[in-house]
Amino acid sequence: MATYHSKETEKLYEAVISLENTKECRKFFEDICTVKELLDLAQRLQIALMLKEGKNYQEISAETGASTATISRVNKCLLYGTGGYETVISKLNKDTEK
Q1: What are the helix and strand counts (H, E) for the chain?
Q2: Are 67 and 59 in contact (CB under 8 A)?
Q3: Contact 68, 56 (CB under 8 A)
Q4: pLDDT tens digit string along 22-72?
Q5: Are 44 and 74 a contacting pair, CB within 8 Å?
């Protein structure tokens, strides 16, 4: 996996974690992303969640409209990435259990 470390990306990460709630997060992402970028990010998270549920590429593609290339990329990140998806999925699962 390529790394994306720079002053600018670090500032972006700091900006994201400074947000206090979903409303602030929504407003920030709607300003910083195009509609397509935001939908693509949301789709990748949905794909990761579905892969963790054990769904296969065909099921995921049919449900999300994602290409198998996109699904494969997300799967590669789950298997060999930095653990970002795992962290978020774990946190989402904890929130769901509450």
Answers
A1: 6, 0
A2: no
A3: no
A4: 999 999 999 999 999 999 999 999 999 999 999 999 999 999 999 999 999
A5: yes
